[in-house]
Amino acid sequence: MHAITVDEPGGVDVMSWAEVPIPDPGPGEVLVRTQAAGVNRGDVLQRQGHYPPPAGITDIMGMEALGVIEKLGDGVEGHQVGEQVLALVSGGAYAEFFVVPAGQLLKLPAGIDPLAAAGLVEVAATVVSNFDRVHLSAGETVLIHGGAGGIGTLAIQYAKALGAHVIVTAGSAKKLAYCRKLGADEGFDYHDDWEPQVMMATQDRGVDVILDIVGAKYLEANVRCLADDGRLVIIGMQKGTKGTLNIAVLLNKRGTVTATSLRFRSLASKAAICRRVEEAIWPLLSSGAIKPGNQTQVPMAHASKAHELLESGDNTGKIILVV
C-alpha cells in the first residue's frame, strides 16, 4: 500500500507518498481500506516533531477516517467485511489501509454524505467529550476560540443545540460571518483586543465555559473572562505551552481550569466517547440541527497541500484527504 511518510520532522516538504507494508489487525482490531481521512492540527504538530503518537502506534499521521472493513482480527464481533465505517484512530489514517480497535469504529450518521462525515469524527469526539467534562448547560454562555475551524464549527452548533449562548473568536470578518451563519450569537476578531469585547458582551459577568485551542497565550485573559463558577477547558497549545496564572483571580471566581487530550486516552475511554458521539451528535446531524460545514477535499497523495492550507489559516471548516 501507499501512505504519507515523514522521514524527519520539518515542513511540508518532508512528506512523501511512499510504499509501506499493509498492517495486520491484532485481536480486537480491524483492517480498514481507507476512502478518506480528516486533517487535524495534531497532524501538523506531529509532522513538525511536537506531537508524537502514543507508544506502540504507527508514526503514519491521521486520526480519523472513513473506509470499508477489509479484515477482522480475532474476537471482533458486530462488524463484517465490506461494511463502511467511520473510525477514530491514534494514527495511521494517511494511508490506503489502517488498523483500528473495533471499539473505535462508528456507524455512519443517517442521511449524511459519508465523505462529509469523515471529517467529523475527531471534532465530534473532542467537542462532546469536553462539553460533557465541563457540563455546558442550557442558558449558559460559552466562548469558543477559533470558531471557524473544524472544532469550532461543530462546537458552535452543538452548543446552540444544548441551549447555550455562543460567543466566538476568529481571524477575519469573513470567518466571523461564517460563524454567525452557523449560529454564533456574537463574534470578535482575535487580532483585536477580544477580552474587553467579551466582557462588554456579557455585561461584565463573564462566560460560563471557554473552549480554548490556543493555550498559554490566552490563559490569563481566559481566566479573567470567566464568570463565577466558570470553567475553562484547554484542548490545544497553538500559542505556547507555558503561561502564568493569577491564582487569586481564579480563586475569587471559584473557577476551574482543565485540559484534555483525546489521542492518549485508554481504549475503553475512546470507545465510550465514540458511543457518546453516536448518541449525542449523529442524531443532530441527521435531523439537520448540526450541518457538516465547509469542506475542502484534497487527494491524499497531495497531503502536503492540505497541510499548507491548514497552516495558512485561510481555510474554514474541515480539510479531507480523499483516496
From TrEMBL:
Q: Which InterPro entries match?
A: ADH-like_C, ADH-like_N, ER, GroES-like_sf, NAD(P)-bd_dom_sf, Quin_OxRdtase/zeta-crystal_CS, Quinone_OxRdtase_PIG3
What one GO molecular function would you report for this record?
quinone reductase (NADPH) activity
Keywords carried by this UniProt record: NADP, Oxidoreductase
EC number per UniProt? 1.6.5.5
Q: State whether keyword tRNA processing applies.
A: no
Pfam families, per the entry: ADH_N (PF08240), ADH_zinc_N (PF00107)
Q: Which residues form the Enoyl reductase (ER) domain?
A: 10-321
Cross-referenced PROSITE patterns: QOR_ZETA_CRYSTAL (PS01162)
**UniProt-recorded name of the protein:** NADPH:quinone reductase and related Zn-dependent oxidoreductases
